[in-house]
Amino acid sequence: MRSVELKIEDVAFGGKGVARDNGKAVFIPYSIEGERVAARIVREKKSFAEAELIDVVEASADRVAPECPYFGRCGGCSYQHISYEHQLELKARQVEQAMRRIGRMSEPPMRPIIPSPLPYAYRNRITVHAEDNVVGFYRRDVHTLMDIGRCPIATPEVNDALVQLRAGRVCDGHYSLRAHSGPRVFAQTNDEVAEALADLIAGILPGQGTLLIDAFCGAGFFTKRLAHQFGRVVGIDWDRFAIEAAQKDAGVNEAYVAGDVTTELRWLLQQSELTSTALIVDPPATGLSAETRRAILDSPPATMIYVSCNPPTLARDIAELQQPFAVLSITPLDMFPQTAEIECVVHLQRRREAETLRAD
Ligand SMILES: C[S@@+](CC[C@H](N)C(=O)[O-])C[C@H]1O[C@@H](n2cnc3c(N)ncnc32)[C@H](O)[C@@H]1O
Known about the structure:
The protein is α/β, with parallel strands linked by helices.
């Protein structure tokens, strides 16, 4: 495979630097825009190529030493070589670019990115794998396990659990190590940023509305914090263990439905007084299904909050939702420092309410 020396122009969502080789885009991991790097092309397609970094010829001022000895081999982190300040700038820019290119917005109303108070030691759970006495994570390039003694992005409690696991005889399998006990259902990964996320949404949503629908509610992380702001709150999730956990300490105005958002949400919206209804959606990385988008477009509530962990699918969905909704703000949050993942909150308001507000 041929070697090249290239100038990095940008860092794309996913974490790879982007350079041009005779006009063709070349993606190079562990590089930063502005750097000159030596790289080896390992995969060449008609419209783009993938390369491995050989050497940094001219380093960026934002390049720092990674904290983790496994960085570059482990598949988990992509950005430990970049100063935390610059990681935040990159992620905010990537969200804005997705909104422009995929979301078809000319001026996305971006709010400043919310940083993580802890750039390391924030993950409250990890899943490690065990095979033939090797305990750790899969390598990024091949499907082989790396033995991992400590993960610096995990909390001290999680690392203690890893030490304990490794101290005994470990049978082959997957092990979920958690800082908190509780039901084995979806939970936010970074406690401090999760609180900031909940506060952000509580601040956006109008006080004392009639109905809040929390689609993809999990165990009710948002629903429970917001219940006092609404006459009635309804959470929907197809994980019945999460719904059981949410129902356990539910207040009188909280209801939880175990079911598929695609069908339950259409029905709920059709039954609701949409002018005083707010909807939160927090789907998995695949975003909203076409049927869910259709259900929202057919019966748009006055206010909608879209929480996303994947800017491209978020932008795809927002492009469609802009027909009945105005996008009032887009706030990225750094839930996952050192990794390429980005959390994002978009505040939408039905156009007729947004126009009334503007006229007042
Ligand atoms: C990103 S998590 C959000 C959980 C919750 N909002 C929280 O903050 O804890 C996505 C949730 O969507 C649920 N889910 C995914 N697809 C679904 C579907 N089609 N219908 C219902 N629930 C779904 C999963 O079970 C998971 O709990």
